[in-house]
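User: Can you predict the 3D structure for this chain?
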Amino acid sequence: MALDVGSKVPSTKVKLVNAEGVKDIDFADLVAQGTSVIFAVPGAFTSTCHLNHMPGYIGHSADFKDAGVDRILCLSVNDHYVMQHWGEQTGALGFVDLIADGNADLAKALKLDKDFSAAGFGTRYVRSSLLVKDGVISHVEIETVPGEVVVSGAPHMLEVAKKNQ
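Assistant: Here is the predicted structure, written as structure tokens:
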């Protein structure tokens, strides 16, 4: 189960991939100020993540800004090379910042990790979303049906962001 609402985001080293390139960061520092909408996907380029999850956040990026969201972040247990290429291929860079969590350290710290070893994928994120304000988790959603993008999708999280302005 994910960290509870009211929990501080854990301090974990990851790689930030955005329009400016790749940078080593502490995730807690990145979300310490302002409002962040975060969605976690099992893997870049996987069909649901690539075709259903990411496009919604790109398409609603201006709406999120209007709702007071400072940054949209996508978390995945992929290396930064894959995340950068995915960002380029989807057109996400400049709209969504990607977090490469290659060793699943952040996934485990957020308690959003799942063992997909039976499918040959190792540890990945559960499909989920969070609203973080000034480094504190204020909303958590976890998809319960595999391959479904409902409570972690952009339209739902946009409504959450609007209610939490």
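The first strand starts at residue 13 and ends at 18. Residues 108 and 125 are 9 Å apart (CA to CA).
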